[in-house]
Amino acid sequence: MPDLSVDYLDLDSLLSAEELKLRDHVREFVRARITPNIARWYEDAYFPKEIAPDMGALGLLGMHLTGYGCPGHSAVEYGLACMELEAGDSGMRTFSSVQGSLTMTAIHMFGSEEQKQRWLPGMAAGDLIGCFGLTEPTAGSDPAEMRTTAVRDGDGWVLNGGKRWIGLATIADVAVIWAKTADGISGFLVPTGTAGFTATPIQPKLGMRASIQADITLTGVLVGNEAVLPDAHGLRAPFTCLNEARYGIMWGAMGAARDAYEAALKYALERHQFGAPIAAYQLTQQKLVDMVLEIQKGTLVALHTGRLKDAGMLRHEQVSFGKLNNVRQAIEICRQARTIFGGNGITLDHSPLRHANNLEAVRTYEGTDEIHALIMGQAITGLPAFVTAPCQSATT
């Protein structure tokens, strides 16, 4: 029987026994709870909120945070979990990411002790859901242009504005809302039952169908001073949370790619054409080899980045390196895997095209390919290219 493993470089030998145990535990959960159901969830555009407490019990929510019911795992352990969750579906990894890397990280790093005690234990357990309101209809890659405002009103604040593409917003109990104040950008914890807060799901979608993204409208939302994240000042705070999510994505993308490869290899060994399994033909083998090469390289990138993160040596442009490379390569792997299935590959009986559709969204959120290229470009040249000079007149 051929070796169906993708680990030709024996990357598992670089992991500790504890890391392998955690990875395998999450893999078993995905195979038992997500894989048998994901085609139906994707088809029905359904996010299974009921698995949130199970993910909490496994320590998958806020798993890189410490205290307040959070397990305090290493960056590498968090990355391995993201890889396994996204091998099931990007939507499942996105849930862990929005809950833990974005919302819980914002509270854990920038919140008061009272805010941490109120929200983090329930969120770590999966009993409470959070969302992270940064992106707006007119302020995606340039959050400095956000139009949502927070104005002082006596002992509280009034928030007005809108957010777009906010994961989990329609089922969330609390929203971290970033808004402009007279002193700059600040973060606010807004219970979603507050008057004037409305979340509307974005539908229909061609990808991320087993996940929730929504528009948020804030109309005269009144919150008290206790809603302010006291240590969040300026865009550094939300960008810190975004980098946590971007780190998880570089691992997750390789999980989707690995699942697509494994499905394609199994199919190629079983599917016969012209008297032989299609795995026996040169063109099919070339496709499989190309997939293995990029999966192994991308996993090495993620693992090395995780070790740097655990050592406190990680730079933000290195996160951009991993997110840009791994998502871009994962999309190509999933598309190539789909071709091995022929026409059967466009059905939900097989995972590669579902993964590819999801990854088109993943390559856009938490920084587009272009944004990460510019982050790396600035690191390489020392010259920022996010804002171009005004166009010169043709007559000058």
TrEMBL record:
Domain of life: Bacteria
Name this polypeptide is given: Acyl-CoA dehydrogenase
Similarity comment: family membership: Belongs to the acyl-CoA dehydrogenase family.
Regions that span the bilayer: none
Organism: Planotetraspora kaengkrachanensis
GO molecular function: fatty-acyl-CoA binding; flavin adenine dinucleotide binding; glutaryl-CoA dehydrogenase activity
Acyl-CoA oxidase/dehydrogenase middle domain mapped to chain residues: 131-220
InterPro entries according to UniProt: Acyl-CoA_Oxase/DH_mid-dom, Acyl-CoA_Oxase/DH_mid-dom_sf, AcylCo_DH-like_C, AcylCo_DH/oxidase_C, AcylCoA_DH/ox_N, AcylCoA_DH/ox_N_sf, AcylCoA_DH/oxidase_NM_dom_sf, Glutaryl-CoA_DH_mitochondrial
Classification via Gene3D superfamilies: Acyl-CoA dehydrogenase/oxidase, N-terminal domain, Butyryl-CoA Dehydrogenase, subunit A, domain 2, Butyryl-CoA Dehydrogenase, subunit A, domain 3
